[in-house]
Amino acid sequence: MPKPDPESGLLVDALAELGVRATIHAWDQPCDWSQFPLVVSRTPWDYFHRVDEFLHWARGVAAVTELLNPLPTIAWNAHKSYLLDLEAAGVPIVPTVLVGRRAGAEERDAALSRFSQAVIKPAVAGGALDALRVDATVDADAAAAHLGRLLAEKDALVQPFMAGIQSDGETSLIFFDGQLSHAIRKVPAAGDFRVHQHHGGTVLHHAPSPAELRVAAAAVAVAPAATVYARIDMVPGSSGPAVMEAELIEPELFLGTDPAAPGRYARCLARRLSGAARAAYP
User: Which residue, 94, 159, 188, 232, could crosslink 216 as a Cys pair with Cβ 3.0–4.6 Å?
Assistant: First the structure.
């Protein structure tokens, strides 16, 4: 990402207060991961550029120690087709059309015709990378060209542009061990739809509504393995909150927005370390 990691240090400090020694290592640098009783994916913010390499790394780590989130969850969450699994489980999502890399012209045209105001983005990506907002009725050629460029390398998604994001922003609920820790609201800069801070977005404290909490908790429950950390991003939909993303690999957790959040997360991780593990890895 075009910014530094603002919060891993907060987590290391909170773990130290519990007597747990933690160190930060780059996922793609040489390391004997078996020396650690617990490895936590934090901010491998380049994984989507090398997703096959990253998943190979995750499989290797999971084979020699405990990886969090668990490998099945990481592998599932790496491709945004997981949104269709959420939908199948009854979780409200932003309407999503998955277009496979080998899709023919008819399938591409059908996807682009679904929404007049659309967002076209890769199925493996992060930080709004290569996301294009387009009026498909006016800029049909631009929409088709962007989709074609994406499909030359990977699968893509076509979604409606959710107008509420410009007025209300995007809410993010952060969970540790399946329990709500804190929530924030991200508001895009004027004239933009991307809520990320490196695109000019603003982060505000947020008190989630019962509906937001219900939808986010339902999304967390669909993951194929229990999550120690999760961030569920939602936007206003036609009938209530709708999931935009379920971030279960490397989300920014906005630990700095709640002084108690690093401690909550650290306690969840410390519970994963048995007395025997602590003795074996002093």
Answer: 232
Tokens read off for 234: 């939602």
Contact 81, 159 (CB under 8 A): no
Structure tokens at 76: 């599932």
Query: Cα-flanking dihedrals φ and ψ of residue 61, to 5°?
Result: -65, -45
**CATH number for the domain formed by residue range(s) 97-160:** 3.30.1490
Contacts of 177 (CB under 8 A, 6+ apart): 226, 227, 228, 268, 271
- The domain spans of the chain are 1-92+162-275, 97-160
Q: Which amino acid is at 103?
A: A
Residues in CB range of 81: below 8 A, 6 or more apart? 98, 123, 155
Name the β-bridge partners of 173.
183, 232
Q: How far is CA 31 from CA 55, 73, 144, 170, 222, in A?
A: 16, 23, 44, 37, 32
Whether the bond into 69 is cis, omega within 30 of 0: yes
> Are 172 and 215 spatial neighbours (Cβ–Cβ below 8 Å)?
no
Model's pTM, two decimal places? 0.91
Strand partners, 236: 241
202-238 pLDDT, tens digit each: 788 999 999 999 999 999 999 999 999 999 999 998 8
Alpha-carbon distance of 187 to 201, in angstroms, equals 5
Ramachandran bin of 128, using left for φ above 0, alpha for ψ from -120 to 50, beta for the remaining angles: left
